[in-house]
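Structural prep section.
Before we set up the soaks we want a predicted structure of the protein with guanosine-5'-triphosphate in place, mainly to decide which crystallisation condition to try first. Input record follows.
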Amino acid sequence: MHELGLAQSIVDIIRANVPAGRAAGVREVRLRVGETAGVLVESLEFCFGVAVVGTPYASAVLVVDRVPGHDLQVVSVELDDDPAGGGTP
Amino acid sequence: MSVVTIERKVLEKNDAFAAENRRRLAEARLFAINVVSSPGAGKTSLLEHTIQRLDGRLRISVVEGDVQTDLDAQRVARYGAPVVQIVTNGGCHLEAKLVQDALARLDLAATDLLVIENVGNLVCPANYDLGEAMKVVLLSTTEGDDKPLKYPAMFRNASVLVVNKIDLLPYVPCDVDTLVGNARTINPALRVFQVSCTTGAGLDDWCTWLAAQVTALRA
Ligand SMILES: Nc1nc2c(ncn2[C@@H]2O[C@H](COP(=O)(O)OP(=O)(O)OP(=O)(O)O)[C@@H](O)[C@H]2O)c(=O)[nH]1
Ligand SMILES: [Mg+2]
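Run finished without errors. Recording the tokens verbatim:
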């Protein structure tokens, strides 16, 4: 149930770390999820798909690295350098 | 394609609110516990008895977290403790921001011990720091002695285990030594109390320990 809240937090973190002009270029969001982080990955992926609706990240996908421990971190995002629809010149 | 490195905790916002709560509680020299358990293990019952027994010795304030209703807050208020109810409307755990809003409605200067009763749920509350000094996990004998192994995060993140409903041991297939052994496999440092809110067994030890924590903080 709380995966939706987590997905929203991930979107907030992307927004805070990717320059607005490149937002539409976000293709991949890499996440590190500990085995004991209490997160159901399938549910988080589903919720992320819901959380990005209506945002510039609508076409982004989550890529999850499972690790030991209880880490739950946004590692990086992969950006398309020339997103269709164009960013800032 | 280019990659932007981020390396931020997903729960960083919650952790920031929790750190603020912790600072505020430290300023007020308050001892705060976050009480977690599955639904019905006896969190509110333990609270009712603790308030009664420590009446006149400790000023206890309470934050109640529930999915619906203020029934638990009503129960606690009957014993004269200031209480703020948080209704999560379906949310499966308390978050630090909700607790921060609740703290603003309590007189922290007139409080020695703050008890936060989390939403009944042995899973999600384990991952949300609220700014408490420690988590206290309750497990009742009717739930079975295997539960620490099945819900390890909660027992790993707690400092204290209260085994409740020991009055029912003659009637249920629960072995307390096995239960405590399982819990200590997960977390060897757990301090354990065995109590019954119905008979009062073990409650003196629990209350004495709580009062000592408050005293130690103020020394
Ligand atoms: N036999 C027995 N019953 C108990 C004991 N402690 C609590 N109960 C009963 O267990 C039931 C649940 O107790 P609560 O205190 O409401 O449990 P809770 O953990 O606060 O429940 P939620 O807030 O709904 O998660 C009540 O009917 C209590 O009377 C105990 O030590 N022995
Ligand atoms: Mg309760």
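Observations: Residues B 37, 39-45, 72, 120, 164-165, 167-168, 196-198 surround guanosine-5'-triphosphate (ligand 1) (CB under 6 Å).
Flagged for discussion at group meeting.
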